[in-house]
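User: What would this chain look like folded?
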Amino acid sequence: TDASNWTTVNVGSGWANFHGGTYGNGLFVGVGNDGNIAVSSDGSSWTSRDSGTSSEFIGVAYGDGRYIAAGRSSTIAISTDGGVSWTSSQPSVFGSSALYGIAYGSGMFMVIAGNCKAYGSTDGGSTWSEMGSVESISPDYEGIIAYNESAKKFGIAGSSGKFYTADWPLYRGT
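Assistant: Here's the prediction, encoded as structure tokens.
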């Protein structure tokens, strides 16, 4: 209860690394190498899920009743059924950029790409739009994007000791 005692759990064979994780709707979701996705309702017993891709995932977020994983090769995977099945795609708007992180807040998923651009989706990952550019994003900071609900800001860890924030909603006017 005080985060001083941690328990190590072996997720299973084939897992080299977790690169990202989230918790939402009563489910932990972890993502990693080779398109690996694993889910757990209790954090102790994990079940691997087929992502439909072998691309490495860097991050995963939960919002609006769905999970979206993001990673290398401009790949995303979406689950709308509680993490049971996943559909992967490579939206053309990302070009060939790796996706370094994903977060959800105030009705929008936002990903950060290796081309130093942020992309947002307000329809659960079906379509993505370029939201703007940041000065520099380094692969050393993979997956470090977050949303602060009270401030209505996304935050992104950048390189050279910089941290970037962006107000949201950017275009809704609320």
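The radius of gyration is 16 Å. If you want, I can go into more detail on any region.
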